[in-house]
Give the backbone structure.
Amino acid sequence: MPSTSRAVVASASANQNDFQKQKEMTRLKRSAVVASAGANQNDFQKQKEMTFQEELRYVAMKLHVKDPSRKGGNNERMSQVLKREKPSLHGYVKFLVDSKVVYDALEKILANADYLCYAELKNTGLERSGALAKDLEWFREEMGIQVPSPTTSGIAYASYLEEIAVKNPKAIFCHFYDIYFGLAAGGRTLGKRAYEKLLENKELEFYQWNDGELTKLLQNATEKLNKIAQSWTREEKDQCLEETEISFKYSEDIMKLIIS
């Protein structure tokens, strides 16, 4: 293996180990988000009445204005930073490359269905790997851009997904929600902001859905997530919800590439 490739893999492995430590600490202490959701009777009752998809959304929204990688007073999320920072074309392509690595990993996990419930979320219509492949080919053919290799950020997240698919299969469903539902919501808005500035309004395949079709696809996925979690204990649900902060941190690292 070339020295550069070894360095990338080693760095990704170190990054993954850091997140594993973070995950273990989170589990020992309980996720601050999940704990705060049950800190008072009103929140506890609210969570109790939610479907599992609603719980996933609730926890994600509580983290939406918080960046776990920032300490102190400045805890803006990258979605807020990108509203004022200018994206770079090279950085945007790196972001798409790393995103494809993550979607490739997640979609392969679901397609192989080593864990029986994964089959429920196979071929939902939300898949983005194929769309990203077309977009990167467009950059190569139409823009003359040499598509780079993935960075440690994308490799680390993909590796983490592959690991938890074996060690903690239920955790994948939190990442599924954060990745696909996050793209369908704020992710498309951020993408539009970037391509309007960089590509003269060329809309990429990555962000293209018919709005009516997307609504239906998300509803179908919601029903499947709720069905999967019906038999879970409260502890199993909480452990899955605790993955939200880890998912956000990995995604933030990839999103930062847009302004690199």
User: Anything to note?
Assistant: The radius of gyration is 18 Å.
